[in-house]
Amino acid sequence: MSDSTPVVDVKALHAALDAARVERGWSWRQLAKELGVAASTLSRMANGFRPDVTAFATMTTWLRMPAESFYRREDATSDVEEPELVAQLAPLLRARRDLQADDVQYLEQLIGAAVQRFRTERSGG
After folding, report:
1. Comparing C-alpha atoms, which of 118, 122, 46 is closest to residue 85?
2. What is the C-alpha to C-alpha distance for residues 25 and 77, in angstroms, rounded to an integer?
3. Phi then psi for 6, rounded to 5 degrees?
4. Residue 8: in which H helix or E strand, if any?
5. Sign of the alpha-carbon torsion through 18, 56, 65, 11
6. Looking at the domain assignment, is residue 79 inside a domain?
7. CA 59/CA 38 separation, integer angstroms
């Protein structure tokens, strides 16, 4: 892997914020107020602009996700192999206090089946 500088994956961060917003039934303005950032910051992110360091830290802390979850390499290309999705999500699912063990197992199986279907469809088989 190249030693290029990591940058914020604004699309991934915005998607995580959007998922949390939808889960709570909030508007973007309500989310901005909860985060203590300007609504325009979230709007700019929707257009691909990076938040400032303070806003980024606030957002990742509020999401309870490590900042590294939203880093990517500037030279990242589509041929870079991604980690297995279920393996990447499993620790996050298991850390949830609102999910029981059988809920986590079900979600892992569901996500795994979806990933397998996507692979099969993409490979034409």
Report:
1. 118
2. 35
3. -70, 145
4. strand 6-8
5. positive
6. no
7. 12
Amino acid 80: pLDDT: 55
Q: What is the pLDDT along the chain (125 residues), one digit of tens a residue?
A: 455 678 889 988 998 899 889 889 999 999 999 999 999 999 999 998 999 999 999 999 999 888 988 888 776 554 556 667 777 787 778 878 899 989 988 998 998 899 889 888 888 86
3-state SS assignment for residue 79:
coil
Whole-prediction pTM: 0.65
* CA gap 72, 7 in Å, rounded: 5
Q: Helix H segments across the chain?
A: 10-24, 28-35, 39-46, 53-63, 85-95, 101-122
The residue count for the chain: 125
Task: Select from 2, 9, 11 the least CA-distant residue to 71.
Answer: 9
Number of domains in the chain: 2
22 and 49 share one domain? yes
- By residue range, what is the domain housing residue 48? 6-73
